[in-house]
Amino acid sequence: MIIFLKKFGTTLTGRQFGRESFAAFKPSLKKVKDNEEVVVDFEGVVTFTPSWGDEFLSSLLDKFGKHLILKNTSNLSVQATLKLLENIHKINFKVEES
Amino acid sequence: MSLKLLTISQSSKMIGVSIQTLRRWDNSGKLSSVRKKVAGHRYYKKDDIENYIKNNLKDQFKLAKNWVFNNIGLEPHSDFYCQDSSVFRARLIKLENELSKSKKLGETFPLISAIVGEIGNNSFDHNLGNWPDIPGIFFSYNIKKGKIILADRGQGVLTTLRKVKPELKNHQDALYTAFTEIISGRAPEYRGNGLKFVKDVVIHNKINLFFQTGNARIKIQKDDTDIKVKKTITNFRGCLTLIKF
After folding, report:
1. What is the number of structural domains in chain B?
2. For a disulfide at B43, which of A5, B5, B108, B231, Cβ 3.0-4.6 Å?
């Protein structure tokens, strides 16, 4: 499954909005099969922050663990946010080279 | 149009001038008052005061400061007021769009909109349902001058952070923790690490940050390694931020 983050908006900030986005998308995650990769594509995202990211990405990470892969992460706010989330949760996101 | 009347004391705090100055301006016609009866007390139409502020106060930081320090809670001018997070998000997108045109910022502009987003959303996330008087935030910017101002009349960092760290003694402690310590505990409140993110972005880029809550303030800039929190003489509830880039 590929999740295109720009479908949630290009300015992804705030816990409230992050929670709403995850709750809205959660039913679609039922389609994911065991061991299937879940790719999160950041293409088109302009502003990305830890509050939104923590609600959305951390929830995906809890659910899919090593099967979660991030793509198109070159935006500087995406990079800075991922670095902080990795530091907070003591994890390393799998990032696909684009 | 608001027909609400303000006392001369309320008006002086909103504009940031003394009562004597307002009396002088009234006598000269610069800013006229209204009186409920002949030779009675001076009152000012809220619209007149807001328009005066909008047209005459170039210093938006001073305006935000007056707003958070005023012991009477009044809604800021609608141009600067985000009463809820959806209004803030819409204005943040507008800021993001304007920043994207800045040649000076280039590819770094999303970092500015990201730190503004974290600071603004912190105000909403930590005060939702608990605003002491005026809900929402003051948010203004001037791209040409490279200034962004955010302020809230919320509970302040100490009160909200004590929910996850009850041992915090004062505003200085709370501010230092908020900017430096990773907090991963989620209960009893989802606590973000937004201000750590802000600090990391500021020390790696040409950005200056001023942040005050209660009687504690912090100033951070590029390449800072030592985060120093200072005690201020002034004290207020809520948060006040100035970002320069």
Report:
1. 2
2. B5
